[in-house]
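Q&A log
Question type: sequence-to-structure
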Amino acid sequence: MRRRGWKVPVLAVALASLAGASPAMAQDGGGTGSEPPPAGQPPPAGPAPPDLIVSGRDVRMTRAGYGHFKIGCRQTSTPGEACLGTLVLRLAEPVTIEVRKPGSNRTQKKRLGAIQVGTGQFQTSVDLAQTLTIRFPAVFQRALRDVGALSVQAIGTYVGKNGAAGTTKRFITVYFPKKPPVV
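Response status: OK
Response body:
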């Protein structure tokens, strides 16, 4: 005759808790105990997080390699909210540039894929716009100066004061004028 060890009851309780049943239900076979909530009713929803707005206007890269992005936080349902998070910029489409090796006259072509071209952290209160300044890496600056304009995807990940998270995505064109403006 085989003796039951401690593993069988512990395993039954663990499986029952994964399935959503109470441990008491698992130990007594599931016949008695509290009934699960009705399946037709969704769980109560918490307050909606504020919306992060990223401006869709074209951004001009300065000669020093910076871009200025406008962001804002729109009120949804909870008064006194704020947005804090990170804005990540990724190259939207691949681009090929020519790179010259130092100390050589030879150039080689380099293909840039969907690389991250900038990141910036922000904290803004509701109904206020903020300018976020992001420095672009040297390889992106070189590609932008060669091509003139590139499309980037701005991905804003943010959290409200109440802990609710959200993500906003937008495509923005970053440009660098090849000719100085006529005054």
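Response note: The CA atoms of residues 94 and 113 lie 4 Å apart.
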